[in-house]
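Fold it.
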Amino acid sequence: MFEHKTLSEIQTEVDQYIQQFEEGYFQPLSALARLTEEVGELAREINHRYGEKPKKPTEKENTIENELGDLLFILVCIANSLQIDLEQAYHMVMKKYRVRDAERWTRKTTK
């Protein structure tokens, strides 16, 4: 099975992968374009599975998991190229959501 990795370990693994190529990381705007393309591919897969648009018989098989993985890879590439620690970014955003949305949603009651 897969080994569990922290975001920091994932960032290191992606960096080691990218560093083997002369081209290195894409420039931020190019990476954003790639991210946008992948979001479109994720939307297509979700639409095929849960929407009203069935897949054409000629379209290759794909999965939502695969597209989410592509998005994660590109997000990590963007973070690495801009020297952003994703673990730190994650903790900051979770703090923001916990404070900003503390009373926004209906809490589940335990039974």
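The helical segments are 7-18, 28-50, 64-81, 86-100.
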